UniProtKB/TrEMBL annotation:
Coiled coil segments of this chain: none
Entry's Gene Ontology molecular function annotations: hydrolase activity
InterPro entries documented for this protein: AB_hydrolase_1, AB_hydrolase_fold
UniProt domain AB hydrolase-1: residue ranges: 55-300
Protein name stated in the entry: Hydrolase
Organism (species): Streptomyces glaucescens
Any matching Pfam family: Abhydrolase_1
Record's keyword annotation contains Hydrolase: yes
Keywords: Hydrolase
Amino acid sequence: MSSTEPAFVPPANVLPKVAPVRVAEGERLRSVQLPGITLTVRSRPPAREGLPPALYVHGLGGSSQNWSAMMPLLDDIVDNEALDLPGFGDSPPPDDGDYSVTGHARAVIRYLDASGRGPVHLVGNSLGGAITTRVAAVRPDLVRTLTLVSPALPELRVQRSAVPTGLLALPGVAALFTRYTRGWTAEQRVRGVMALCYGDPTRVSPEGFRNAVEEMERRLRLPYFWDAMARSARGIVNAYTLGGQHALWRQAERVLAPTLLVYGGRDQLIGFRMAQKAARTFRDSRLVTLPDAGHVAMMEYPETVAGAFRDLLADQAARGAAGTVSAGS
């Protein structure tokens, strides 16, 4: 099955009724129609006008809600927006069924070009980290800084705990897994995801767990849920095999924007050993390691990740001021 063949989407008159997406206090959702895609954008009003824009991109199986804990901590320094990638969250599948890393990167670029918000402080987690790395490499004009939380960049030795996610990319596996797990409750599924993605799942509040279960129930009613998951997983695997100028590590070398790298010591999906390789590859990078964090540090330790992001922006501002003084002296 090609990653670019049209995705199966039932006609609108046979789509099941699906509960609305949760919106946290202070957040707003809007739908943006672009050529070939419709994106849902989650935003928060900035503390004041004129703040630089930031755009957040989630990982495989995630949504813009993954950034709801961190965005309020940054309202005073950036104008926050987070995307639901095509086929995830509240965004419908892309018209062309392209869930490749390049296809997702193209969606981000289309949005930034259409909105006129670039250059932005671009932030990505996991698959979103691979996507935003590609965006920063091919369209440096759209990126002020790049922040990567456990980015899904190629590894020679994949962790054993990450193998099931990779297997999802194989044709037929998603359908097999769907049949095998038909009897699983949403609560069971959420506990499994949290055990895989969090360094310490007990950090999730009861309310946070209930919200995650509600979102899981909503997603499982979407007829394209597993198709989007499987094709996006396949997109990651395919991106790992690309060579030449399209190789993700080669593109990481080309990124010009100041880059913040955040890695969790208990990440079961992205090897902690990749932190040093990333720090060597991105030319203007700073590395923050969180020994107790898992794969979604921005959800598990939002204050720490937000603090590191603030430091990145403060350093960039200081560089700009120093450059202005130097040019005027």
